[in-house]
């Protein structure tokens, strides 16, 4: 029987900084339509693991596979074009362009081939319609003409997600999506992630300290500690497990209401 490879997987992924092993032989598969939260104490290697997947860092050993294809040798821009979309890098946005222009450029980049000079006007309309579709999903239709730079922090995050949707990224990676946001903006971003998760077409990875956020969004949790993957499973079971309670959340038996850091 032929089984489909997972959308994304890492095999014994490892990085050393001098003598320090920041990510230590992490093997993990991420399936389409799932949201996996990556948790662990400060310095556990979560962001470094993200950087290895998105290509911001090159691994010392191990592999990153996208649909079973080895992308370990590709840099970040090529991995992004292959479908690994990392949100909230800010480099994804053109600050002086409008909301609509930012997303239209992403749609255009995605649909560059097949460009037909004779139907420029039709083509332009189609690009704008697609861009508006992504902006409608992310709740930005009323900000089409605002420049990216003029948006609130929360709306900029929505715009970044619209750009990733327009680029048709298969994998969406969120590193602490609510960090630095005001209390009113937090639910907007969480609703947005929930909305993208709901159609089950994307593979979502989330690094998050807040356990209430993890509980409400994640289908699965993986726990990193000292760079190694030490626990994995359904959120309630992993959060309640002794290994997480004692070693990673520091409060055995408390019900893990809080993260750390
Ligand atoms: N470029 C680097 N050079 C040297 N050491 C690094 C580098 N990047 C990360 N580290 C080290 O690797 C370890 C993992 O760091 P990382 O930022 O991935 O942890 P984290 O789990 O994301 O932590 P936090 O929850 O605090 O964000 C830490 O000990 C960190 O100091």
From TrEMBL:
Alphabetized Pfam families for the sequence: ABC_tran
Any one GO cellular component localisation term in the record: plasma membrane
Keyword rRNA processing included in the entry's annotation: no
CDD domains: ABC_Mj1267_LivG_branched
GO MF term set: ATP binding; ATP hydrolysis activity
Keywords associated with the record: ATP-binding, Nucleotide-binding, Transport
Start and end residues of each ABC transporter domain: 8-251
UniProt-recorded name of the protein: Amino acid/amide ABC transporter ATP-binding protein 1, HAAT family
């Amino acid at each position: 029987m032929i089984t489909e490879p997972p959308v994304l997987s890492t095999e014994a992924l490892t990085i050393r900084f001098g003598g320090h092993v920041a990510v230590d032989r992490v093997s993990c598969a991420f399936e389409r339509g799932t949201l996996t939260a990556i948790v662990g104490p400060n310095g556990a290697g979560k962001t470094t693991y993200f950087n290895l997947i998105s290509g911001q860092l090159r691994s010392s050993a191990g592999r990153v596979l996208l649909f079973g294809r080895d992308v370990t040798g590709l840099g970040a821009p090529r991995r992004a074009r292959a479908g690994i979309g990392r949100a909230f890098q800010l480099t994804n946005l053109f600050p002086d362009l409008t909301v609509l222009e930012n997303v239209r450029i992403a749609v255009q980049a995605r649909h560059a081939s097949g460009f037909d000079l004779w139907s420029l006007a039709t083509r332009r309309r189609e690009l704008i319609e697609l861009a508006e579709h992504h902006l409608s999903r992310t709740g930005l239709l009323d900000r089409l003409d605002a420049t990216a730079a003029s948006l609130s922090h929360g709306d900029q995050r929505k715009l970044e997600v619209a750009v990733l949707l327009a680029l048709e990224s298969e994998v969406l990676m969120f590193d602490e999506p609510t960090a630095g946001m005001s209390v009113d903006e937090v639910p907007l971003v969480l609703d947005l992630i929930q909305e993208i998760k709901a159609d089950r077409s994307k593979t979502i990875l989330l690094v998050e300290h807040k356990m209430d956020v993890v509980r409400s969004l994640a289908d699965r949790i993986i726990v990193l500690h000292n760079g190694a993957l030490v626990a994995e499973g359904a959120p309630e079971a992993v959060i309640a497990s002794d290994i997480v309670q004692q070693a990673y959340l520091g409060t055995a038996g408390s019900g893990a209401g809080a993260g750390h850091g």
